[in-house]
Amino acid sequence: MDFSYTKQEEQFRLELRDWLENNLPEGWMDGSFKMPEDQQEQGQFLRDWQKKLSEGKWAAIAWPERHGGRNATLMEEIIYHQEMVRVKAPPLVNYVGLHMVGPTLMQIGSKEQQEKYISKIITGEEVWCQGYSEPNAGSDLAAVQTTAVKDGDKWIINGQKVWTSFAHFADRCFLVARTSKGEKKHHGITCFLLDMNQPGVEVRPIIQMDGEHDFNEVYLNDAVAYESEIIGAVDDGWRVTIALLMHERTGIGAQVFSLEQQFNELVELARNVTEDNVPIIEKTDVRKRLLNLYIKSRGSLLNYYRNLTKQLKVGHPGVEGSMDKLFVSENTKELFAEAISIQGHQGLLWKKDAIYGDSYWQKNYLYSFGQTIGGGTSEIQKNTIAERILGLPKDIGK
Amino acid sequence: MDFSLSQEQEMFREYIKKFLVDMERTKIARDYVDNKTEHVKNVISDLKELGWTKLNIPEEYEGMGLGQLDLVPIMEEFGRVLLPGLYLETNALAVPLLERFGTNKQKQLLLKSIADSDVNFTVAWLEPGGSYKEQGIQLTGEIIQDQIRLNGVKTQVPDVELAQHVLVPLRINNEITLISVDLQTPGLLVTPQKNFVETRKLFTIHFDNVTVPIENVIGQIGDGWGILQECLLYYNAALSSVAVGAMEQIVEMATEYAKIREQFGNPIGRFQAIKHRLADMKLDLETARSLSYYANWTLETSAEDRTEAICSARIFATEAFIRLASHNIQIHGGIGFTEEIDCHLFVKQARYYENYLGNIEQYYDLAIEALNWTNQKPAQAVQEQAIMAHK
């Protein structure tokens, strides 16, 4: 058992820290920086940030050097997440491109596709979104109903996608569509590299319960894709669909590190918020709730490190990732719920009237409901744990 | 980064496991329940032949000089079969106490005999109506030349029939002191006490003018509380591993049953009501394991966060043990409610450890103090003072 980092790993950490200190926007670290309110400006800010990262070779560290990456080890990726969480770095607007589409193109894409798309992904010049979920295909992805019909050298696409993150900024979409009715529902699926800038694609915002707009509905009305925009073979897209999802090496690492940080922030909150001039951390009940969260956040981190150890030994992520996802998302939800609860009735106050941190806690509390749904619901994770780890029989209907 | 047990540690597990499988696993516990005490003593003695008790004893006292982490897989295997006996009290409490605070003579005599022969320690701490807090210790010791005369009553002392010595916290001049008492000492009145945890037998011990040599005091007179709290960290880290082993067995049992038991034409494990509960149980098990590995690691490396890490493991593992053992009965349905199946033994054992050698509430308080969420003096400082005073 050894939790230390090698000299080389520590060197990597220092190099990144140094770069972040010199390159994060003015006022970012002390919290005086304000993200632009206007959506267009926000999009531009995020693209500029990614461009800056790519210039420093910090946008896609796991990519091979010839594509602008650093060929980073798994441990370097872990350190990368730790450091990005530490400074609460701005999000990667092209997350889907960097972590999913890019690696899939390198693995399965044609030479032409690789040349056309990869370099623009890393610079943020072309932002990608992921066209998977549909109103009737959420956890059951193979039930996609969006159709693509061949018409000469074109494919005509009709249907609706939903929960598409960053679609309002996206230039291209990694789209899953049905091209034929197979014997089984995961047959007859094809993956397209769709151009978002065309009349047949309409993006409508989804406003979440926290008032924010991260997701969209994407309507496809006779949208056009060309033969050259098919990745993998026609009707054989299920394999490609899964390959895209398999490129996440570090699993929910970033959320695990965030949970640890959010827990420390919660303790600070409990020290600073007072009731009748007494800090609420003085209450026995509050301290006990904090300790339960402490145990769970430590448990999330240590579980993650144990699974990481296994991954370092066997070379690929294991199905245990489903336990990490379940635990960290449920614990995050619980943490923010407690954060609201311990503030008492004043915990309801919102935005500038919130008693602490411009409703940081309230916003995160409302947002946290999405965490046990997105990326596979907790129920799906439990099925995976039961079936693939414990070996219980498949669910009825599978 | 390597958060796993080493190959050597895992290898030792296999020896222990094989022995326990040959002994038909929980049959040893059931024999103990059936009062086949001599037979159980023999099994424990044969198990000792494998050399596991030497692991964390220094080489100069016939041990192997290994650390707390080396005990982890062994404690897990013991937990798995609900092994009766005083392995926790002896190897995870008496050994660190003697090694760290014992006199040379005590080490020569007692550590060597733990390593080599069938010597076990039990703990007589709780008093009728009392607590595991300082004020709960009222048994008195009066110094008479080179002897101490003990008066008072200790209750719920486990497995006295399997022990040769008993660790007794008491008050000398109103200061808490720890003493080791030979169970052959004349005048000890030992009477059995019934309890529903049949795998641990309890006794009351009356000390009525019992005299014990003053050289049996462990540490200094008046240091008893600090050294006991310090060494309970070792005990609790090991206890969390015992709970993990038991939980692993529970998850296996419940999973196997869910695969074979059919209702409505399907194995019940196909239904999400069962499946999701099992997934929750598996997650609890693995979380307890991570916390317990880390807790034991902090002792081996004297990590700064050891108090909160060990309390976390102790709290989570014992609470999860109760939760999982209870779910196990529910998943088994009617058969799980019977005496015939092991399910009930696990529930009872889980309850034994909830409040043993410290109420669970006390561990919440201890962790909260160590994390410095209070204005009170951290408990760790009290322990450190005691250790410093001893040096």
From TrEMBL, chain A:
The keyword Flavoprotein applies. It holds the Pfam family Acyl-CoA_dh_N. The keyword Transferase does not apply. Keywords: FAD, Flavoprotein, Oxidoreductase. It comes from the Bacteria. PANTHER family: ACYL-COA DEHYDROGENASE, ACYL-COA DEHYDROGENASE FADE29. Belongs to the acyl-CoA dehydrogenase family. This is Acyl-CoA dehydrogenase family protein. It comes from Solibacillus merdavium.
UniProtKB/TrEMBL annotation, chain B:
It comes from Solibacillus merdavium. SUPFAM superfamilies: Acyl-CoA dehydrogenase C-terminal domain-like (SSF47203), Acyl-CoA dehydrogenase NM domain-like (SSF56645). It comes from the Bacteria. PANTHER family: ACYL-COA DEHYDROGENASE, ACYL-COA DEHYDROGENASE FADE28. Pfam families: Acyl-CoA_dh_1 (PF00441), Acyl-CoA_dh_N (PF02771). The keyword Membrane does not apply. Residues 222-361 form the Acyl-CoA dehydrogenase/oxidase C-terminal domain. Residues 6-116 form the Acyl-CoA dehydrogenase/oxidase N-terminal domain. This is Acyl-CoA/acyl-ACP dehydrogenase. Its cofactor is FAD. Belongs to the acyl-CoA dehydrogenase family. InterPro entries: Acyl-CoA_Oxase/DH_mid-dom_sf, AcylCo_DH-like_C, AcylCo_DH/oxidase_C, AcylCoA_DH/ox_N, AcylCoA_DH/ox_N_sf, AcylCoA_DH/oxidase_NM_dom_sf. Gene3D superfamilies: Acyl-CoA dehydrogenase/oxidase, N-terminal domain, Butyryl-CoA Dehydrogenase, subunit A, domain 2, Butyryl-CoA Dehydrogenase, subunit A, domain 3. Keywords: FAD, Flavoprotein, Oxidoreductase.
